Batch of 4 targets.
Target 1
Amino acid sequence: MRWLNSILTCLILTITAAPLLAEEPYKHGPDSERQAGVPQGEILEGSYTSDDVYAGTVRDYYVYIPAQYQPGETACLMVFQDGASYVDVERDQRVPIVFDNLIHQKKMPVTIGVFINPGVFSQETEGGKPKRNRSFEYDTLSDQYARFLIDEFLPMIAKKYEVKFTDDPEGRAICGISSGGICAWTVAWERPDSFRKVLSHVGSFTNIRGGHVYPALIRKTEPKPIRVFLQDGSNDLDNAHGNWPLSNQQMAAALKFSEYDYKFVYGEGGHNHIHGGAILPESLVWLWRDYQPKK
């Protein structure tokens, strides 16, 4: 039994030495739950192979069409990177439920949601799995991903599902988590003529592919007409790429210095959807406040 005692001793030492992670104190409110009498939008899904900007990549996507949308009319647009994590109504963000409730309450405009996953190269493998293109697409500081969305992907969605997105950049928002968060900012930064609302959850404004320069760029560049909501927590990542909480605080400080329309919610959460999902309704109400469609 000596070997069993040794194993038990090692387990006890490991458990007592490991930090205990407390449950995060963020819970969903009523706008993140199904409500009686609220019309539910339709969720469609598909797969897309790029033949242009990211030639050869394949990605899944989902399209949310609100019940209030009338064919032939023009709707607002909100794009979500890492779309599967946002469209799933059983997970933390529950975007379709929140959209249903807020659109019904007229706290946000009639908005079509486009949820897009990063691409993979199905013919190339890494460790036996398709090679992922996520970091290249999301962390690169250029207009490449913006061109993919604006010139290639969104026109395909509009045509395939016979929907019309507003051309008004004030009526077009973009969102993401982690590298998807910095990607959302990059799209608006590069193309404020197409997107002027940004929602970033635990954004990777760190040196993965040079994103740590954004606070300096914001301070030294003429302010752009972007409204941005940042969420992060004190238990976010700290690694060779940088310190995520510090990077988000630097972003917020730069946005304040340059007098952007911004809001920064800083809590105690980690690198996950929990806090961002809990405050998603408030985030969207703030982001879409005072929006008036162009006639």
Note: The longest strand covers residues 57-65.
Target 2
Amino acid sequence: MLTRNENKEILSKSDKIIITTHHKPDGDALGSSLGLYHWLKSQNHDVHIIVSSDFPTFLDWLPGRDAVLIYPDDMALCQSLIDEASLIFCLDYNALSRTNVMEGVLRASTAKKYMIDHHLDPEGFDDYRLWDPQAAATAQLIYTFIEDCVDEVSEITPEIATCLYAGIMTDTGSFRFRSTTEQVHEIISKLIRSGARNWEIHEQIYNSSTENRLKFLGHCLLNRLEVIHEYNTALFAVSKQDLEQFQVTTGDTEGLVNYALSVKGIRLAALIIDRTELIKLSLRSIGDVPCNEIARKHFNGGGHFNAAGGSSEGDLQSVVHKFKSILTEYNEILIK
């Protein structure tokens, strides 16, 4: 971790700054990006956020959302801004491949890269790093970064506090995951004191479902949930026809895997979705069931110990069969 003076020196030499995050940004990715954006703007930096794709509509209300540029929608402008940048913040990802269509242009950029992240096994593309795999969220690390750089905590405005609160809240499952430490609660307390209206943030994110999303959820619970009792495992297998039938958009599958994990006695849950070009997997677990190992060894992925993701080029049925077949490998852990 760099010192306050080192961070201040890096920022003092950076006249044009870009903030990036991973493909299909979630609450932590967008919340941490916008929180850092607001702070850098308050310090009179020339800063832009560029992302590789759209993101869930339930994040559209976040302060500063209109400043977010989507690379495929305006490639010429985004390319120009990246070419001119002297510093690129890489938030909530540890490998440039996670930026999808932006990977090539980011690798080619001569700008210094500052990775702020909490995922395991960083690729090593960065020049500077604030990395802590024990952190609950990248938004937590952004708070630490800002706090280490400022002379007065009052520089954390209500807009910054709101964005960082949203990031931490979503990545901790509303503060119920084991990553929610005493330090996390202390930071949350400071964010509320700085103007984050916690009840409004919860309302905006969790009570903004479309009718189609609720019908899709009901369909999955009734028709796509499979419980494998002998391995204390549950899964949803969602076809591309399901996605089309309910007009599923970005963010509509968010949190679905947690319903499988909520079944009494379940220790491992999977959401397996046919995204046409690839089969995508989201894994969640409790206790000592290693989601990150399963994703890395079998599905070209990775992530946190109890929350990870991956993908496969097979068809939906073959991927479901493969997932079930590896459960024997983790039999002793699953049936504890």
Note: The chain has a mean pLDDT of 94.
Target 3
Amino acid sequence: MATLPGLIRPAAAAVPVGELSGRVVDVAGLCVTVAGLASFTAVGDQVRIRTLDGRDILAEIIAFRQGHALAMTYESIEGIGAGCPVFHDLHAGQKQGVSGGLAVNGSWIGRVVDPMGQPLDGRGPLLPSAGRQQRHAAPPAAAERARLGPRIDLGLKALNLFTTCRQGQRLGLFAGSGVGKSTLMGMLARETACDVTVISLVGERGREVREFMEDDLGPEGLAKSVLVVATSDSSALMRREAAYSAMAVAEHFRDQGKSVLLLMDSVTRFCQALREIGLSAGEVPATRGYPPSVFATLPRLLERAGPGRLDDGGKAGQMTAFFSVLVEGDDQNEPVTDTVRGILDGHVVLERAIAESGRYPAINILRSLSRSVPGCNSEDENALTVRARRLLAQWEEVKDLVRLGAYKMGNDPEADMAVRLGPQIEEFLTQKKTERVSLEESFEGLARLMAADEGTGGELT
């Protein structure tokens, strides 16, 4: 161990002042066993492993076993063998762990970065920043947080009407593969009325990143966005950090008093990364192969989104968040889906059958809800959407009879209205991905459609 100076000035706190060293004694699967550091490191500390060909690979301590430290690398373990030296830097007044932080500033807007804050878009380095935003941070204290802000215009008719969202609210997008989830998130990124959008692509297919940027997000959406990307070939640690880094970037802009939209795709791949880490550390698989630590970690991440702390003037920034969940096997009760749904403030369900019918966004209105709706819409607006939901539910019950020719008009006035209006409401909810419909236009359009059938003049009172 290197000798430490007796006096460290605050300006030099970020400079390593010493170094601990150990050595690799075993490599198995994704895990590297390190001897000589167990007494001086903690879970979450970062170390450098020098490979046999002289490269330094960054790794993280994930567990301890039988007097040795277990580490996982942030990249491929190729080149690591028994006896490779392992180094742990010592810093003045702080530990060199994964919570070292990101130098976030305004130059990040419009850029694509990896979870470590390195640019991926080939547009040169990011501007330096004096402050550091911690990746692994605690949520604001419950009693110090602001309340939800006013409702936010999402630009999508189906969401504005039936899952109306307030600033600072957190909703889940639950969908199977190939149901239009990425397209919906691109629409939200472009059309939502916010100051900054932060998008986390966790475990995304490499070829789809550029397609998402150019086709779904577009130049207009990218101009106000920060993308944090870890593709599916990245290590489990990098995929995990993609979620934490995006949350830290969103917190930075929220703490400046801005209205921030956070889009994370997907929480399921974040949990899969946690599962790989937990199983490598020796945890016992519990629910469908997920170790208990996964379900303990989820609320610590998701609770960081939402309203910020109140400042001295009683104001606070807001982080509105949409977390997509890739529903495995289209099972809405699988463990990750069920856990996330219980933590968030609402859920939006995308269904394959609706997508196959050609209606996009393929949102199941009857299974989607926002827990803030009763308090953010007017009484007339709530009555309108409740009426429309009831008609859609009745139309769902009788449409098979209508298709078979077994339904007879005149027996039930309410069902007759559902037969007339149900298809019209579904058609009204169809929206092109390049189309934007404001909150006011959404409610006015639905009111006109309902009033045209009921003969009330077509205006929302």
Note: The longest helix spans residues 379-404.
Target 4
Amino acid sequence: MTMEFATRYRGASRIPADPSKPYVIEKGEGDRAHLFGDLVTVYAGGEQTDNTFNFFTVEGPKGDIIPAHVHADTHEVFYVTQGAVRLFAEDPEGEQLERLLTPGDFGFVPKNCAHAYRMERHHSQVVGVAAGPGGTFERFFESLGTPVDEMGLPAQPFVPAPHKFGTVPQEYDVRFLPDHQWRTS
């Protein structure tokens, strides 16, 4: 059984805020949010790691590319556990990379590199870890998306209102690049 704790972000969280205490969370029982067609589950974030890293999963159906974005102070890891995910990334000199990641494949995007991804198969899942001097950004998912208690994908994609995208860079290390073009497939 997973206990619930109140935090500054949620009335009920399955993640204890005290960074000095070990804890275990059962599969899928982290803090969940729907964003676009995906379910994001956070298992550890800034409160638990003194803002040094976060750990989350994103699972979703085959779908559209998520918007291109960049993190000025955060490195991000993509580790695929199910399905297939196409990772798009661009280094600061403009060289682009596109790779299809399947279970067991690992992708790393350093800070200041534009990136995006697309689920290529239904029931795909990515384990994400982000770390850097700017802190963590896991609460971005429920801020831009919508927090949920239930497990599973959204019945309908949750697309945030356009004005919400403008508020994200001030609170989280996520800057969207609406005009970014991928020169790859």
Note: DSSP finds three helices and twelve strands in the chain.
